[in-house]
């Protein structure tokens, strides 16, 4: 088209300010027509992608030996030189890109036989971004184009041959009000001097009040140690490390960034000095000795006597588990001992970093002293449901609905407004179906099919540095960017969707009282009622995990208005529970918000029936598929579906514990045992999956349910 026309995109938030996930992205697409144009359609696309690049070098190395001889008079000198050189060297960059979110809508149809008249045509738009979107990020942080990976969002407006792109930044939604304590299993080290002389045993343990912390927020860390050795603890070092694992093709790399380091933590009450009781200096520790040590460490951690504060720097990225990159955070506490010991004992705790909470930007979220291994918290519900009138759909991966994009009506024509089209008429834009042929062509050219993301971010990443080449980022990121692993939810009351974070009602009694209910709606409302809550609270001191109503995609509401919506394509409903289950697994592997996917399915009768008939094996498989941050929440959500059919057994609980990350196994036990109906006779099935330390932590929960 030459200089006949031009397109540009303006955003209401300006060029600098980032959009918070869960809010609206507003702006205008302006078409500047210099000369008459043929009719066409003005479309707008929103695309969020992960992109990684790994440089590799390939070539053939050849080793050559040279024997040289030189003569000086009658004296000869022989030199043997070794020369290494490369031939056929080629440098490659493995690149890979995956789509994590996308939206498409037709802003204006300049149809008809008449050409588009000269002038400015402004079309406003508004996209309601899903709260589960990860933050924009790039690593390493640099001013140039050099990077190894990034998460980027862009708007693309097209009309015929005219194309314009606009990059915009997203910040993840604030973390929820959930308190997720994490207690690490104590580690016991046998200290040796020069690898030969035994110096005794040192047991160390640690816990955090809340493992989900926002950037700039402070968390409380408690330590405990039992020094049954002849060595003193000289100092305690604390390090918070950010681990970025990324891949491209069959290549994978690892990058570690040190966020915080405290070289010596001052804890006056911690047992630093060597043991004075010679009877405790044994060559071997018996099981009774370990049980006593575990009990003492647990009491110390619950008392909070040896506690210090650690502030998460604002330069930290969000924890994120995506298709091509995984960002995790690890808190490592190392106890340095004297006496020339070979190994310094240490313990690690996984931390989830995200955007700071709205209600507590600088404070510390404290827990009940006895509720170390449980989640405490309740998320507020909105006073009213947002208007679901929208004109396009945002989806994650290939088939998971995430949210609705809403397109504003055109401006009212006035002397201060630009004309919407050549004859100043105001006609609403027709919304194309999601599988429009032009959009499919665009997808085939630019949007690769989504790849399954790794399951829960395993703690194996903590030791991944021993298996991969380590890199260190040159400069740290300044803006609060990164990928969110646990964004807060946008709550919307839905049919048969629990609204409370946790329920203190008795699930067994509720099942007996409402077994005759057919659709299950009365069951859930009864479980959330105040009836009988105090009785269970007295039996079980700590709170159990509960459910939060995930954000609706607005496509399954029974009262949803039909005008102005994108057409929804019909789909073939799976014929069996097995097909439903496999479909759910595929969605979870392509999801960036696992709990939201499973929670939304509770509004469908077929999936409610599937959840109520899960076998222990399938139950454990679902838990192992979701990310570490949501394993306990998902387990409780599914347990509530099983409890009303008397199907939730100790076998389900044992399988869930077996598939849970080691950091949250005790949380899983305390959250699920109130829902088990055969606990009195099959309790041993659960306890057989626990270690001695985990049995010590969960003993009180079992006793309170007798």
Automatic annotation (TrEMBL):
Gene Ontology CC annotations of this record: cytoplasm
Biased composition (Basic and acidic residues): 507-516
Spans traversing the lipid bilayer: none
Domain Arrestin C-terminal-like: 198-358
InterPro entries: Arrestin_C-like, Arrestin_domain-protein
Record GO biological process: protein transport
SMART domains membership: Arrestin_C
Recorded superkingdom: Eukaryota
Annotated Polar residues bias: 523-535
Region annotation (Disordered) ranges: 446-539
Stored PANTHER family: ARRESTIN DOMAIN CONTAINING PROTEIN (PTHR11188), FI21816P1 (PTHR11188:SF17)
Protein name, as recorded: Arrestin or S-antigen, C-terminal domain containing protein
Species: Nitzschia inconspicua
